[in-house]
Amino acid sequence: SSIAIPSLSKLRPEAEQAPASGIVDVANYGRGRPGIIPLWVGEGDLPTPAFICEAATRSLATGETFYTYQSGIPELREALARYHERLYGKASDPERFFVNSGGMPALQIAIRMVAGTGDEVLVPTPAWPNFVGAIVIAGAQAVGVPMNIDAHGWNIDLERLEKAVTPRTRALVINSPSNPTGWTASHDDLSALLDIARRHGLWIIADEIYGRFIHDPTLTVGGRSPSFRDVMTPEDCVLFIQTFSKNWAMTGWRLGWLEAPPPLGPVIENLIQYQTSGTPVFIQRAGIAALDEGESFLADQIARARAGRAIVQRLTESGLVELPPPSGAFYAFFKIRGAKNAKDIAMRLIDEANVGLAPGSAFGDAGEGYLRLCYLRKAEDVEEAVRRIAEALPRLA
Ligand code: PLP
Questions:
Q1: Are 95 and 240 in a shared domain?
Q2: What is the 347 CA–ligand 1 centroid distance (Å)?
Q3: Cα–Cα nearest to 336, from 385, 375, 371
Q4: How far is the CA of 219 from the centre of ligand 1 (A)?
Q5: Which of 294, 326, 361 is the last residue of a domain?
Q6: How many Å lie between the centroid of ligand 1 and the Cα of residue 104?
Q7: Hey, which of 43, 132, 243 would you mutate to test ligand 1's pocket, going by the most ligand atoms within 8 Å of its Cβ?
Q8: What is the ipTM of this complex?
Q9: Disulfide check for 392: which of 7, 106, 301, 353 has CB 3.0–4.6 Å away?
């Protein structure tokens, strides 16, 4: 007796409708080419520092291989509270932090808590495509609200955002500093966004994962970007998603956290139970090392990003590239004058320059025509990539 394989038509439509990543096609096209400089990914080129790896191996060696707390081991939740106190200058309760296997699962739980079938979630675009994916998989609708761009860079259109609110809207996703644009909200922007959320009874899902990578001095507060934490009250409905991935070169470890008001604890713990049933303890030990001892590594990462950003800015010297300087994160999001189809240009850059970039169309319609370049790499690579792109530019428009 054989087991019947269900036909595809029996899948939930939400599962099939989740958008495929627009970066994968380009990455598959370029991956493995000899000499290619792959700048399509959202990560740096440094491996995780040894002191972090050693914390994990020590944990394994002492037999920490069992099931654990859903929300994270108390030591990591306390380390998160210490880190937040240092960074935001306010005492923090360890019970606000829910450890998770990366920012992505934290996002999925945040969305699942606030939006489902029939609901809408507003996302300023261009945006990290996984916001849309997480919303669609939850059964809700992602409503993109295009950002504005001028000579100074990208900015959020608050009026347009508020006009997009309907009776079905449940949440706003605010990613500052933004992947891919580098837009970084000022305290005024954040206060205005909170006001919109309060007026309409919405949740804010705040993604400030690139907050330590801030390049615009006017937007820097104590080595980080402005945060909702600076302007919110305890009554505000804000869920923060966070990750170890970028700051400490830990993308492959899958370690992040959700920050939420402690009364939501039982709901979040339950959702984690049915998602991962808790994050491996040895991975969490690595997280404690990163938080407690990782500032000098992070300072090196930030310096690397600043150097990369300065090099990429040279692309504008050709006069063929529009690149508003990114205020934060580690991406250059630029347009080649006259070029229309970003994916086509990304493919041609692989063939003609042996450089891999992500097509802006992967970040929503508002990104069409743009390319995203990750500059968190050693300077020689970024320099060589910029040289090759500049050389190919006259043929690309
Ligand atoms: N948020 C943004 C804006 C991102 O760009 C990423 C990764 O690229 C993440 C969250 C999640 O990272 P991870 O799932 O590796 O923690």
A1: yes
A2: 24
A3: 371
A4: 22
A5: 294
A6: 6
A7: 243
A8: 0.99
A9: 353
Give the residue among 368, 340, 372 at the shortest CA–CA distance from 180.
Answer: 372
Spatial distance between the Cα atoms of 186 and 228, rounded to a whole number of angstroms: 10
Q: Is residue 2 part of a domain?
A: no
Dist. CA 249–CA 377, nearest whole Å? 11
Tell me, in angstroms, the distance from the centre of ligand 1 to residue 243's CA. Answer: 7
Q: Are residues 26 and 148 in the same domain?
A: no
Nearest Cα to 342, choosing from 372, 321, 314? 372
**Ligand 1 pocket by C-beta < 6 Å: which residues?**
42, 102-104, 128, 175, 179, 207, 209, 243, 245, 251, 256
Task: Identify the domain boundary among 294, 316, 334.
Answer: 294
- Please give the chain's pLDDT, 397 residues, in tens: 556 665 655 777 777 777 788 888 899 999 999 999 999 989 999 999 999 999 999 999 999 999 999 999 999 999 999 999 999 999 999 999 999 999 999 999 999 999 999 999 999 999 999 999 999 999 999 999 999 998 788 999 999 999 999 999 999 999 999 999 999 999 999 999 999 999 999 999 999 999 999 999 999 898 999 999 999 999 999 999 999 999 999 999 999 999 999 999 999 999 999 999 999 999 999 999 999 999 999 999 999 999 999 999 999 998 899 998 899 999 999 998 888 888 999 999 999 999 999 999 999 988 999 999 999 999 999 999 999 999 998 888 7
Residue from 98, 109, 179 whose mutation best tests the ligand 1 pocket (most atoms within 8 A of CB):
179
Task: Determine the distance separating the centroid of ligand 1 and the alpha carbon of 360, expressed in angstroms.
Answer: 17
What letter does residue 224 receive in the DSSP assignment? B
Could you list the residue range(s) of the whole structural domain that residue 249 is in? 60-294
